[in-house]
Amino acid sequence: MLIVADENIPLLESFFGDIGEIRRVKGRGLTRNEVQDADILLVRSVTRVNRDLLEGTRVRFVGTATIGTDHVDVDWLTEQGIGFSAAPGCNAGSVAEYVLAVISLFADQRDLCDWSTLSVGVVGAGNVGSELARILERLDFDVKLCDPPRQDAEPENADEFVSLAETLACDVVTFHTPLTRAGDYPTHHMISDQQLAELTSDQLLINAGRGEVIDGAALARRLAQPDAPVVALDVWENEPAIDPDLVDNVWLATPHIAGYSLEGKVQGTEMVYQALCRFLGLPVRKKAGQFLPEPALSNMSFTRNAVEDEALRLALGACYDPRKDDLRLRRVMKEEGEKRAEAFDRLRRDYPVRRECSSLKIHLKGSSKSLQDRFRALGFKLKI
Questions:
Q1: Which pTM value belongs to this model?
Q2: Which of 36, 131, 185, 384 is the most buried if burial means most Cβ atoms within 10 Å?
């Protein structure tokens, strides 16, 4: 059995080595010739999987180690009887921690002693948005959820959701929707001139969902105007050939890596492995925890003199500081033409190991129950 797999999917040999022969390929620009003799195809979001790629091949199962599926023609796969699996929720914790790290930096910029005084509008309440909202609420933030499809589908929970206009009034607005172009609530260019005009310089706009949800040209126009919002983008239109001028003009720019924690990546691989085992009728013998290495930073200690908000954000920043990724992206945007696009992909391919809060044990001496609860909300392990 031949498994053709994106070279950037982690732990391919560990999970799939005893199922079949693995052929590693570059995910972007994958051709039919490269998958012609494959039985299994494993991809990430940079590969378009459709009739053009697979018709006439012998592929009978496709797995994408990503939460999104807008790069896969799922209907066509179903018509052809080709098995399919994604990895919904695999990197929800990673993206949530990215957003929290960005909010922490914004609070620093505003010199806020208590970051939970910020209201947060979460647009899109799927796996990622719901996980982020859960953490924020446990940290005592005022959270407003906007998800019209869910609101329609769950009338019994309709009062849990608010309109897009209400979320746009929050101090922080963060997007976690899929990319859709049809239906009652298309998300393509959902945020354009009219919505951006409502935001002010006192607000933070974060997009760690899909780049095309925000109209890039409209955003560029708004950023050139007075009283523009503070903007942090992890996803972009036209990846990997993103607009270097837009990178220059946003406050924080990262190369589509919000979900790139080691835990998130490995969980994505594990979920596809489990689905393939079910498809082939094989026992599931492996778990992600078997393969995670010891983290570089494993312990932090705080005494009874620690200030709650400062301690929490210090630990969060020790796990992940998005400013490092911002510097890397701005550096490669100085390249010329096609080299910029290649560099963007290279930043993702060669992304350094980043661990989630769950990898770090926090030692607390004489701390309050409030601080303990807030550390637990972020997923840290505690020793009291």
A1: 0.92
A2: 131
